[in-house]
Amino acid sequence: MSPNVLPRRRSTGLLRGVAVGAIAVLGVGLAACGESSADDVDAAPAPESTCEAGAVAYGEIDDDAGAVEVDEGALVVYSGRNEELVAPLLEEFTEATGTELSVRYGSTPSITAQLLAEGADSPADVVLLQDAGALGALADAGCLADLPEDVTGQTFEAYADDDSRWVPVTGRARVVVYNPELIAEEDLPQTTAELVDERFAGQIAIAPGNASFQAFVTALRVQEGEDAAEEFVQALVDTDAPVYSKNGEILEAVDAGEVPMGLINHYYWFERAVEVGADNVTAQLHYLQDGEAGSLVNVSGSGVVSSTDRSADALALVEFLLSEQAQEYFANETYEYPMTSAVPTAAELPALDELDSPDIDLDELASLSRTLDLLDRVGLT
């Protein structure tokens, strides 16, 4: 499934002026929660933090990202989302509120590992990460503060943290990308189990070092159990699944006819279509509908770090990410799924409620270390 026409990306400048209203509303919500306003944040007491350094393992620290200096006089954001994507939106927040931000960027696993290693001594005030498992790991370690109901209640319950420690910001669907010149739509796999069927041997590319593939395997472990997940991944090895380093490389290979199919997240196709024009993309998208890991809808999300002494400003940024302006930005810039009902899904995407994502607690995707051990055992590291 692929659209023929895509709208232009919105200019980030269109957000200017409208963000102010969203933050004005924020002030009311924070006051209702007993928080000080952002202007009075210096007087707000720091919440008690139980974030113990090294208590939970997740990912590996990137020394380069960790070496980036942050300005602790500003609101410090640890972002596992790409700077090119989110920096314009964060600038809109600063323009609307006057709150200066200092952002440390890195991959979601590495930036999460950094905060977990720092514990309550971390300079981070807010996290913005691209994987629910990373958010779950921080929550399990006591590194995320409880969020008020008027914030968490804005998001879709099915994708939210049951204990209100983080909020989903966007959704991203797992898909099969395929080249219709190499395989007909009616011949595509229809279930997760069929991805390792002998008839598709050597035809489905994977990126085992990529966080989205690792989240897919983690979901498989959570839903089907350790043995079934290892059997599945071993089958990928045994059927000679072509290995690439990134989702984007898989898309390029499928589009060029180097391999018939691959496993990626849906928005990579749309990024490519915006770049070169939808009519110039041969590859198409196929959404599995089996309620298993192959149809996983994972989320990016945000939370307030429990050791922050700027809780009002931090909460204001989290709620800004759920505002209509921010949700429209993500929907139009990357064709991700909005996580609030205030903004519709892009017309080119299947509706969120049409996707058959597995019925699992996304916090359970925090068990990444066991997934990495599994991938190491079968030689996919």
Q: What can you tell me about this protein's structure?
A:
It is a single chain. Residues 2-46 have low confidence and may be disordered. The protein folds into 2 domains: 12-171 and 299-352, Periplasmic binding protein-like II (D-Maltodextrin-Binding Protein, domain 2); 172-296 and 368-377, Periplasmic binding protein-like II (D-Maltodextrin-Binding Protein, domain 2), CATH 3.40.190.10. It is α/β, with parallel strands linked by helices and 381 residues long. Strands 1, 2, 3, 4, 5, 6, 7, 8 and 9 form a 9-stranded mixed β-sheet that branches. The protein is 35% helix and 12% strand.
Number of helical regions? 13
Secondary-structure element order, N to C: HHEHEHEHHEEHHHEHEEHHEH
What is the first-to-last residue Cα distance?
A: 31 Å
Looking at CATH, which topology of the largest domain would you report? D-Maltodextrin-Binding Protein, domain 2
Q: Write down how many β-strands occur, each being a DSSP E stretch of 2 or more residues.
A: 9
